[in-house]
Structure formats: C-alpha cells, structure tokens
Write a structure and sequence with these properties.
The protein is about 45% helix and about 15% strand. By secondary structure, it is of the alpha/beta class. It has two domains: about 130 residues, 3-Layer(aba) Sandwich (Rossmann fold), CATH 3.40.50; about 60 residues, Winged helix-like DNA-binding domain superfamily/Winged helix DNA-binding domain (Arc Repressor Mutant, subunit A), CATH 1.10.10.
Length: about 210
C-alpha cells in the first residue's frame, strides 16, 4: 500500500530534503507539510488524510510533542524527528503516544523503515531510547512545571498560586531538585533545564 506522509518542521531545507529523499521509496508520498503547531493542527483536522506524521520537537509556536495523541487511539501514527539526541525527548515521545523517535542525522533508509513500521502499527524506537523509557524520566510532570516557572522568573509564592499547591510544597520540590542534581541557585537549575531540553516537553494537560 502507499503510505501517506506529512512533515511538520519549520526549516524548509529539512522539509524539502526529506521530501526528496523519501521519494526513493516508491510507496511513500508526502501529502502535506506544515511549519508550525497551529498549521499542523489545521491540516490534521481538515486537510487530506495521512498515515504517518514526521514532527520536529522544536517549532516556532511550541513543542512538536504537543501534537502527540497521549493515551488516545491515534490515526495517523506520529514519528518524532529531532536534532537532539536526548533520552528525555524519547521518553516524553513514547509516553505521549509516538510510534518512534529518530534523529535528523539518521540514514534515510532508517527513516524510511521507521515510516513503514509506524504505518503498520509498530514501534520505531532505538534500543537505547527504549532503555531510557523503562528507566523512567529524570523529572516528573510536576517537577517540570515547577522548573518551567522558575525559569520564567516566578517566585515560590507565584508558583504555588499558578499550580494550586502550597508554598511549602514548592519549596520541597526545589529542595529535592537541588539535592538530586547538586544545584546551588535557581539560576543554575533554570540554565540546566534549558540546556537539557526539559522546557521543551509539554505539560500533560497542554492541548494536542
């Protein structure tokens, strides 16, 4: 059968390169492309039907992980394609219902195989990424929410109000994070979260 594919990436050179490279597979056709989350959501709602969506993590209006279906049955299947070889991205992709996690430097044959695998209901995660999934994430969803608010300059009181928890609970989360990772300041925590990509992982309640 022909696999109908969509590509969501904000870099035209990536989109055009993938479209050309995937033409090597006679049974894969790129039906549409999008460069933002909003554009992709519109296409998924009312555009031509596709079997597989290749989606980047970092998009201009948010994380591409926000497109993933979570626990809902998914048609199409989603493959995350990223420049970043970060276990937490693969873990988040898996838990949000992705069919695979690929690097943009992957050989085109690997990407083609992953598209075929996803289209038939299989998983296209590398063994080391699956190992990170079974090992569990380094931060919980609530910890990510706290770190995100710390990174945007919110005080403990403001974080407590935003998350509907007590100030002491916020302090407990931060103390645990500081002790676990050896941070001395909130700035160190925020810089680490940005560098490691934790701020790119959507909250569980963000729309997809």
């Amino acid at each position: 059968m022909t696999v109908r594919l969509a590509i969501v990436d904000d870099h035209p050179v990536v989109t055009d390169g993938l479209r050309g490279a995937l033409s090597q597979a006679p049974d894969i056709v790129v039906v549409w492309t999008a460069s933002t989350l909003d554009e992709a959501r519109r296409e998924l709602r009312s555009g031509p039907l596709v079997d597989v969506v290749l989606v980047d993590v970092r998009l201009p209006d948010g994380s591409g992980l926000g497109l993933l279906p979570g626990s809902r049955p998914s048609q199409p299947a989603f493959l995350v394609l990223s420049s970043f070889d970060r276990p937490q991205y693969a873990t988040a992709a898996f838990k949000r219902g992705a069919s695979g996690y690929l690097l943009k430097v992957a050989p085109i044959a690997q990407i083609i195989d992953a598209v075929h695998t996803a289209a038939t209901g299989g998983l296209a995660f590398e063994a080391r990424h699956l190992a990170s999934v079974t090992g569990g994430p380094s931060l919980t969803r609530r910890e990510i929410e706290v770190v995100r608010l710390v990174s945007t300059g919110h005080s403990n009181d403001e974080i407590a109000v935003r998350l509907g928890i007590s100030r002491k609970t916020v302090e407990a989360y931060l103390t645990k994070l500081f002790e676990r990772w050896g941070f001395a300041t909130r700035t160190e925590l925020a810089l680490w979260a940005e560098r490691e990509g934790w701020l790119d992982i959507p909250n569980a309640d963000e729309p997809s």
